[in-house]
Amino acid sequence: MPFWKVEAFVKSLRATGYAGRTVFFASLLTRSTEMELLASSVEIERFLFLGRHVRQRLASPWSLWRKYFALPQPEWMRDFVARRVLHLFYLRHLIYLRFLERNPGIQRILMCDCRDVYFQRDPFTDWPGPGLHAFQETESVSVGECEHHRRWITLLAGEDILEQLSEFPRVCAGAILADRDSAIAFLTKMVEMTYSALSLEAHDGDQGLFNILVRQNRIPNIVVHRNGESSVYTHPGITSEAVRSDRDGFVIRPDGSPVPVLHQYDRNLEIAKPLLRKLGL
Description:
Blueprint: H1 7-15, E1 23-26, H2 31-39, E2 43-46, H3 62-69, H4 75-85, H5 88-102, E3 108-112, E4 117-119, E5 132-136, H6 147-157, H7 159-165, E6 171-179, H8 180-195, H9 206-215, E7 222-225, E8 232-234, E9 261-263, H10 269-278
Parallel strand pairs: 1-2, 5-7, 8-9
Antiparallel strand pairs: 3-6, 4-9, 5-6
């Protein structure tokens, strides 16, 4: 991914006055992108992913791999195989988990996408407290009404699980806040759920697993927030008329304060253009 695709993420975050660590997990970076990230005070955690785009060719005989991951074995060996078998969207949870284990000083975490995220405030300014904080998408579409979630959950866990979750609003895996203990519990459970998934045919299905984890409370201390009312606003499915902005052009919450994190803001040009102009982009 070239730097210009993540430039808004980096520049908007710095514009908020955020002074914490920013870590990008990257494979096969170009030298120019690497230099731009380092110049922007971004740490780079490297990993090697040799799949095609986000797909891993070796994942195809999943019924065999599922049995393999159920076997007792050393952690390093399971990790070694997982890094060569799992599609990227699933593998990222293992990569995040091992990073946190190596960095015990990190106590508050935002795990998020990078290409389609814009920061209007320091994401930790309005820290919502302990727990795993999941943020809903628009409530106008439920899990059962979304073709992607129906496909993901059915392939990963079966139709019975889909039926149990069908009436819930969707929660988005693209921006998640957590304290350290909750983040490790979440990532550990996501890895476990991946290893035991019925199928990995849905190469982009980690959000299906995330919805199962959240709605079935598979770890303690899960807090679900309505879209745009706390730290994150996810835009697809929301009309421009429904989005409230202040006189500076920032998207605001019901209390009038800017939403710290905008996710998928770039899907709506009426929202994106004035925000990008603030950054000179």
